[in-house]
Structures are given as structure tokens and as C-alpha cells.
Design a protein that fits this description.
single chain; mainly alpha; 2 domains; 3-stranded antiparallel beta sheet
């Protein structure tokens, strides 16, 4: 059995023993399979810890979505990657402001990679990005 989906494409229907039916999920992303709940939980703990600012204030969880220059993400990512690499090779990290351990280094890399990618994806949707970030966000240093 097939159903017609967008643009007249036929898609197989899944039939369950209960009688329920669903569209095929063969051509859809499997986020549950792609992501690790252990990693998401650890990343959440990292982000919660870093909601506390140096002045003791608490920033909103989505504060990063307000936008930062891409160069800020790149510089942070390189710094945290260097710390991760040092620890991976069993060297001491001399930077007194470095993350506490290799897990936090990896979470910091994830943060910077996600922030950079978020900005690139928003740039592809300027009508949404203007609302989310304001016009000034496009003054950032996007790659050509």
C-alpha cells in the first residue's frame, strides 16, 4: 500500500499489528539513532553550568542564539580543541582558564560548532534571521 506525499511522490505505508498505519520513515532523518542521550545529557549539564556568568548573573539558555561573530566561535573552538588534544595526548593544559576536563573540552567544541552552524543556517533564511537576531547580526564575519 502506498500514499501520495509531497509533489505526488508515492511512499510505502507501514502497517502495524494493531491496525495502525504510518507513512514510511525510510527517507526521514533518524535523530534518535544519530544522537546519543548520554552526550545530550552531558552537554546539557555543561550548558547549565555555563549559564552562570562571571558576574554571578544567569544568562538565558538560548542567549547564544542572539548571535556572535563567527570568528568568536572559531577562536573558541580552536582553543578548546587544543586543550582536548593536549589531554588526549596526556599532556598538562597550561591555560588556567581551560575547561575542567576532557568532557568539558568536548562540550565546548560542540557549543562552538553548533553556534557557528546555527549562524550559517540562519544566513540562508534572512527573513527569519532578521526577526531572531535583528539586522545588526549580518555585520558578522561570514565566509564568502
Amino acid at each position: 500500500m502506498f500514499e501520495i506525499r509531497g509533489e505526488g511522490i508515492l511512499s510505502p505505508i507501514r502497517n502495524f499489528n494493531t491496525g495502525a498505519t504510518r507513512s514510511s520513515d525510510a527517507d526521514r532523518p533518524d535523530y534518535e539513532g544519530y544522537l546519543s542521550p548520554l552526550v545530550i545529557e552531558r552537554y546539557g549539564a555543561y550548558m547549565l553550568k555555563h549559564q552562570v556568568q562571571a558576574d554571578g548573573g544567569i544568562r538565558s539558555s538560548d542567549n547564544w542564539q542572539n548571535g556572535m561573530p563567527l570568528s568568536s566561535y572559531v577562536k573558541g573552538m580552536w582553543r578548546h580543541f587544543h586543550h582536548f588534544w593536549m589531554r588526549h595526548r596526556s599532556y598538562e593544559v597550561a591555560d588556567h582558564l581551560a575547561a575542567a576536563n576532557i568532557e568539558e573540552d568536548l562540550c565546548a567544541i560542540m557549543f562552538n560548532a553548533q553556534g557557528y552552524l546555527h549562524q550559517l543556517l540562519l544566513k540562508k533564511q534572512p527573513e527569519k534571521a532578521d526577526i531572531a537576531l535583528g539586522k545588526a547580526a549580518w555585520a558578522y564575519d561570514y565566509p564568502k
